[in-house]
## 1
Amino acid sequence: MNYDIIPFVGTASFRLGMDSKEIMCVLGDPSRDYQNFSGERSLDYDFVEFTFDEADKCVEITFLSSVVSPCNASLNGTPILGEPYQAVKRYLETLDGDLKSPFSDLLISLDLGIGVAAPDAPEGIVTSLTVSPKGRYEACLERLQ
């Protein structure tokens, strides 16, 4: 599956603001329905996870890539998932000159509302790409300070 990210929106298939029933109408039952570390409801479909606020509106879409469930996610047609962390970082810097990196394996673009993670950064590959609405990453970064 290939998904092109639309900053602050999601993708053509999945959009921020959708409720869990709308997601399940498209994808069926998730492999896991759980409370994440922040206490928010999350639906896990192996290649993508959706996080919902208390009003059941999607506030995060995270695309995941693994050997078990490969997924292709791109930004403006440029592949992100499965690509080398350093190459993705260089590309994102052309779009946002002020990337945030609260952890060594995480890059956040406040200008695009996206975050990428690579467990073995800086040498590893990007294994997740998250899109969020305006303000969500700012609030997360504020809580970390």
## 2
Amino acid sequence: MKKRTEKVLSLIITILYLLSFPVGVAILGIVFKVDPKGAELKWFAAIWALIGVALLAILSYVMKKARESVKADVFPLGDITFDSWRQALVSAIENRGYKEFYSELDGTNYSLSMYIYPQSRDPLAVITVIKTDALRESICESEADKETDLVKEYLNCRTIRNSINEIKIYCVDKISPYFHTLLDSHMWQDYKLGRLVVGISLDERRIYVGNFADGYGIWLYKKLREQFIAMAGLEGKEPLSKQ
């Protein structure tokens, strides 16, 4: 899914900037006695446009740096085997009332399981667990398309109009560059999609929990994070980076 929240925010700021122009003209006329039809207005419009372009450029840069600078919180997986850990996780998911809606195992070290909370509808609560050898962008794109089709099937619709709150858990045998690209980035929240991405590294024996910089949807991110932390038995434990 695309980062529509940031695009919508930029659009809103642009619209507000354009709407502020007549207000600025009125203030200029009242405070500085400038004739709205005079030559001074051209200079005012030019300066206002330059300020607007500079502010939008700064906003874009700040958003980009925020996404790049957020590192995932890392917790130890412990000595427990992955199968035992996953069994405990699935039990915790089901104890919270989630039901398995779909399960796929293709025999090539890839599996996908989707759990949906049946009492939820809008927003729809979804937990997806994916197991693969190494995380690649193509796998994420394929999984996202698959998940979209499954949600449409569950909702019995052609177009998803419901809000979705999703926890997505990637379990990998080994770390790949795209693993860090995905996990060490800002967990943006869409007005129609609340999301938390988690990575389980079996070779490092570590759990990576995607982090949030600041801004729209932080309350929803915290809700999903608290839910995963409880299900994974990480309550009261500090990330390795904070120990």
